[in-house]
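User: I'm putting together a teaching handout on how multi-component assemblies are represented. Below are the sequence lines for each component of a complex, exactly as they appear in our records. Could you produce the 3D structure of the whole assembly as structure tokens, so the students can see both representations side by side? Please keep the chain order the same as the input.
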Amino acid sequence: MSAKIIDGKKISESLRLSISEAVKNRKEGTRAPGLAVIIVGNNPASRIYVNNKKKACEMCGFYSVEYALDENAEEKELLELIERLNKDEKIDGILCQLPLPKQIDENKVIDAIAPEKDVDGFSPVNTGNLLSGKPCFAPCTPAGVVEMLKYEGIEIAGKHCVIVGRSNIVGKPAALLMLRENATVTVCHSRTKNLAEEVRRADIVIAAIGKAGFITADMIKEGAVVVDVGINRLENGKVTGDVDFDAVREKASYITPVPGGVGPMTITMLMKNTLESYNRK
Ligand code: NDP
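Assistant: Of course. Below is the structure of the complete assembly, with chains in the same order as your input.
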């Protein structure tokens, strides 16, 4: 068997098109959804992410505004900016690109964003609502994973989903989202015993580890669905996922590639959350 490749780029394009249609068809004379993106310092990866987010905003017809703060910016300056944006009626979503320079406490910054504008879904209110099954903005990467599975018509309810990784931005929220979809969920991490055995029992594997080629074909049950969240840059500059793609592809029924899988979905879910925030008003 050779798995069907889940094309995250294609799914993203189709979702962005429907978002831009919704924005175009808004009530005449009303403002477009607005996203504020804050970047602090000169991290090259952060710059690429922020530029991609701005491009996505343009594609979707959103109003977007960028605030670039100096590498040495004080925490107070950033918190005051967020306070202003919390009150800004043109802004539906506020995103502060992480990581932040060390003089700034990331938790304080995340806490400062009004929950109704926290389109990244990292604030304690959204995290709590996700845990208790209430409406919330879910973190974009795991939300993108669920969206891809649904787009492909892959059944989740009753399936055994094994997630490798338990970070606050991917693994843990992925577990909660898959539970919400009625999967039976196992979460593995660096202290898991017999990890290969756990993964072999999965109907759906979500790999979010950050180690190139960590998930090998012998860990995969014949016909399993394999979602690769990992982004690893190899010494030769190539970007690869956490899954040994070529070998796993021969056993899985569906697989996401890296690049072109989960990556493009993350920004699209940010657009979706921003539109939802706008629609709630
Ligand atoms: P973290 O480093 O925060 O978490 C990695 C997780 O993997 C941890 O829970 C860790 O376990 C677990 N892990 C590490 N080594 C092992 C091991 N040998 N065996 C079992 N588990 C292990 O990473 P993130 O969750 O932030 O990101 C994961 C990957 O996803 C990265 O490659 C990242 O670049 C990518 N990513 C991709 C995004 C996208 O848009 N596609 C967005 C965000 C991340 P423990 O908790 O025990 O330490």
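A couple of points students might notice: The radius of gyration is 19 Å. The chain has a mean pLDDT of 97.
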